[in-house]
């Protein structure tokens, strides 16, 4: 069962983020600042544009935000993080979280959902899941550390 993320869930999400930090080739090089994450996530959750669901059994979550594009007023939902604990992958949880994200995005008037795979965890599998759910691969990103 899924439910909406609440500010009371911040500590639970941070616990799962520790697992993500260890597993992710991208995020395991990022310095952890738990207090910053705690404050920022709580602020995000309280914002009216926040979209987020957590599995009631605390196996995974997905969150993001609804916002207009910088060049036109069309509102889109942007996934910021989808994470399933490793021992619960391969089932229906990720698909259920994505579908709930879409439902919540529609309620906020979003036209599209934009999702990515920034964690670099099972990237191809995640992209194939999105494609099975009707998403189209678009664009690529590049990153360069400059400081």
The level 1 CATH classification is Alpha Beta
> What's the shape?
globular
Distance between the termini: 43 Å
- Low-pLDDT runs: none
Query: What is the third-level CATH name, the topology?
Result: Aminopeptidase
If helices are DSSP runs of H or I spanning 4 or more residues, what is the number of helices? 4
Structural class: alpha+beta
Question: Could you describe the 3D structure shown?
Answer:
The chain is α+β, with helices and mostly antiparallel strands. The chain has one domain (2-132): Aminopeptidase. Helix content is 35%, strand content 21%. It is built from four helices and five strands; from the N terminus they run E-H-H-E-E-E-H-E-H. It has helices at residues 10-23, 34-46, 93-107, 123-132; strands spanning 2-4, 50-55, 60-68, 75-84, 112-114. A five-stranded mixed beta sheet has the order 1-2-3-4-5, sandwiched between helices. Strand 2 and strand 3 form a beta hairpin. The protein starts with a strand and ends in a 15-residue tail after the last helix.
In a few lines, what is going on in this structure?
The chain is 35% helix and 21% strand. With 147 residues, the protein is of the alpha+beta class.
Provide tags for this entry.
147 residues, alpha+beta, Aminopeptidase, 4 helices, 5 strands, 35% helix
